[in-house]
Input
Amino acid sequence: MIDSASGIAPAAVVPPQSSTAQPARPATPARKGLSPSARRQRRAAWLFLAPACLMVAVYVLYPILTSISLSFYNWDGMSDKTFVGLANYVELMHAPTFYTALKNNLIWLLLFLLSPPAGLAIALYLNQEVGGIRLVKSLFFAPFVLSGVVVGLIFSWFYDPTFGLLAMMLGHGIPVLGDPHYVTFGIVFAALWPQTAYCMILYLTGLTSINAEQIEAARMEGAKGWNLLWYLVLPQLRPTTFMAIVVTIIGALRSFDLISVMSGGGPFESSTVLAYYMYDQAIKYYRLGYSAAIAVVLFAIMLVYIAWHLRRMLRNEH
Output
């Protein structure tokens, strides 16, 4: 239409755009999968890991699960299994031998902790450049390569009250392995010999990684002796100390071979530990379910300790 007053046609009204219209989005690039070389590397990694994973599953996980399952049964290894629930654990909690074995494991644990500081002292002595030190290292290393049976026989002869070296040194015989009050301490003393050698090897390896420049700088500042050891050497040996303590405690909890050779758990079951008690019930009395319950309890004790140490190690790392 034309305005009659001005003769000019009004401008056309443009309708407003709809509020629902969205702005154009930039095109996202298509996701790319793994390249053929990355897939080949991943496949090769799994193939290399497969044998180790299979062995862990067959020789570690399967025996653990089987032992836990067997602990709920009464079985002599030949007849059919009989499900008894928690009866094996209830009997174990009421058995005096179980508490004797637990007490002896605690004695082993406390006395075995002497081996890391003893191994450190020997390692510090051997970590020097003097003539004939290699021969001395070989002599200290020898107990570690000896079998537990050999160590047990050597100390059985050493403790013999009639012709043993201990009787010759004291002038009279002491029935160490025949006295319920002495037998556990005598066996632990024998076990400390190879365990100290093992800790010595760990510390000798750790001493090779110490920063020699820091040692020289500390000596130039006047540090020596105990201060040098406590404030500079031991902090750098912390990972080695952790490993030595872990291995020592696990060795104390699973002690078996020396007890079997030297005392057979006697006299009157006074030197038995959980590992030997488990073996005794399974082999002598054919109580495989009860023996599995002992194994589960021992595994639980180790698991609690290992979890506590791993948590502590991770906290220190953080």
